Amino acid sequence: MGRETRVKKIPTLFVRDPTDLNRLLRDVHPDCQWVIDGEGVALHKADGTCMLLDQDRRWWARRQVKPGRDAPPNYVEIEHDETTGKRFGWEPIEQSTYAKLWRQAIDSGNYHPSDLPPGTYELIGEKINNNPEGVTGHVLRKHDRLPFRFEAPRDYDGLRDWLVGYPGEGVVWHHPDGRMAKIKRRDIMTG
Question: Distance between CA 52 and CA 54 in Å, rounded?
């Protein structure tokens, strides 16, 4: 695995309340001020599971390891959340619980696998998270190419009000330099 595996968990636009990690404060996360400043493009946050195609054309599945649990074989840890004790990283797709669904996406005929560029993808479909994306079968969508229909507000109150009527999971802002920031509807609704 090369440098593209160093994809860390995308920071949430607003800081989490340290006394209740399910709740967001109104303070902007220090790594996300660029969103508030009007930089970057807002894209739909697809509700599926993250996959990685590395530079060697090997597929990996995002994997979270909870505190007190052993990491699976061949697991590559990328990040450790000191607050929750959770570890985040990649495992080879062949050993992932999503391997069969990933294979269905690859074999779907929607694209030629050799044409897919290295990077991260969202695996979405009928058997993932109750299929909120409403797709038939299973498909891979490259993260930096996901569609977005609206310009989302960039302030706490505006986002909360806007996300009430938004049918998706949330928004991910992509900066031209590769930084990203996200907001999930469920996170801001508890604030």
Answer: 6
H or E stretch covering 105: helix 99-106
Residues 111-152 pLDDT 10s = 777 889 998 899 999 999 988 888 899 999 887 776 665 678
Q: What is the DSSP letter of 118?
A: S
Q: Are 147 and 44 in contact (CB under 8 A)?
A: yes
Residue 86: how many other CB atoms lie within 10 Å: 15
As a whole number of Å, the end-to-end CA separation of the chain is: 38
Task: Tell me the per-residue pLDDT of 79-93, one tens digit each, with 9 for 90 and over.
Answer: 998 888 999 999 999
Residues whose CB falls within 8 Å of the CB of residue 170, separated by 6 or more in sequence, listed in order: 45, 163, 182, 183, 184, 185, 187
pTM for the full predicted model: 0.74
Nearest to 88 by CA among 65, 109, 105, 104: 65
Give which of 168, 155, 132 is closest to 43, Cα–Cα: 168
Q: Residue ranges per domain, the chain?
A: 1-46+150-191, 47-145
